[in-house]
Write a structure and sequence with these properties.
Helices cover 21% and strands 30% of the residues. By secondary structure, it is an alpha/beta fold.
Length: 455
Amino acid sequence: MTIRKTAVVVLAAGHGTRMNSRLPKVLHPLAGRPMICHLMSTLETLEPERQVVVIGPEMQAVAEVVAPHPTCVQSERLGTGHAVVAARDALAGFDGDVLIVFGDTPLLSAATLSRMLDLRRSVAAPAVVVLGFRPVDPGGYGRLVVSNGEALEAIVELVDATPEQQGIGLCNSGVMAIDGSRLFGWLDRLSNANTKGEYYLTDVVALARSDGLSCAFVEGPETELLGVNSREDLAVAERLVQNQLRAQAMATGATLIDPHSVHFSYDTVIGRDVVIEPYVVFAPGVRIGDDVYIRGFCHMLGVSIESGAEVGPFARLRPGASIGPGAHIGNFVEIKNARVERGAKVNHLTYIGDARIGAGANVGAGTITCNYDGFFKQHTEIGAGAFIGSNTSLIAPVRIGDGAIIGAGTVVTCDVPDDALALARVPHAVKPTWARTFRERRRAEKAAKQTSKKS
Ligand code: UD1
Ligand code: CA
């Protein structure tokens, strides 16, 4: 096998009209990141010498997302062959294998692409290798015209196909590996004399054959070759990606009691012997250590949870929440930009924002860190072993010392020293028998009213 260099061209200049969106199609997210980024990182694992993306003129946002990989602009959308021509300068001087993929085919695997490149590098060295597949519904895909079961003769678009060709089940996924020393010569010879009036990349196969060169195909799985054209397709792709991520989490030692109700992001990191109850969402940037228990209905974004911690049910952990080993975060608790240290407990109905909660501290139900004055965010410090009584408001910036106790219902406005008690209570009156007398008077008044209505 000869080792040749690879360059990759990703075509992403199409309108994506069927998405009905202001966002370019390839920026729609799958598992929390733009679909084109899934493809770009798969392609990176092939370690290509160059990796360029062809975009449309008003797609600066795509260029930013794929940076530092370069982009080329196809100023008019005249077809897939024309789109590759836009990459001519970016591929100047390159004569290895050019792998062409579509930006809206995000589920491609590196293993499938490697099989194509291996065939290009085999002794037979076909000038063009196409990735074919046999979809359950061949619909509008281009068809591969094959002779003797393996020699690829041409690719015909459905709209240009004869009735006999329309009956072919082997379809074009759009992925091609092409001899880079000849590619642009063929592209210069493309014609747009076809039903759509476009310069089809697929016609490169017939041109290679007319030059007496051989072309071949490999078959890939339909699940990898799904092209995302509509929001329905996007939902199908999301489900496939989620299923992969769920399988990965379970393989690395997490128990998912109901896998289908747990939603991961592309970058979620889950440790061993983690248990995840149903209906949990891991938005991007979440790291979970070993032996963590996550109860149902939690949402997490940009969070780290260390070993042995327990979270939920119904917890919302926002960016910068850092939950220490063995800490407990309970129901209806929201935590943002705050460190909860080892063994601390925040168990019920609480908002903790911009804070540090020391090891072993206990934060009572209904505690609120009042961290925002409408202009600035302020920090709250709770010392190790402190006890914050229920329904406490902590007006930041404020520091509660180690081992301090805050009486329930206190509004804390200034720092509390270590081991001190802070307590704000309005004394209340207790009036014996008042409640009974009140009820008797009200009952009598109600009875009198009803009698006067009847008479
Ligand atoms: C293309 C193939 C078809 C294949 C199908 C697989 C051709 C002529 N047809 O058809 O054989 O079965 O994909 O999904 O190649 N693009 C540009 N510039 C353009 C036109 C397209 O960058 O001027 C990009 C699009 O953004 C997209 C890709 O090329 O990523 C495919 O274009 P699309 O119009 O979707 O091609 P299909 O008609 O689906
Ligand atoms: Ca398409």
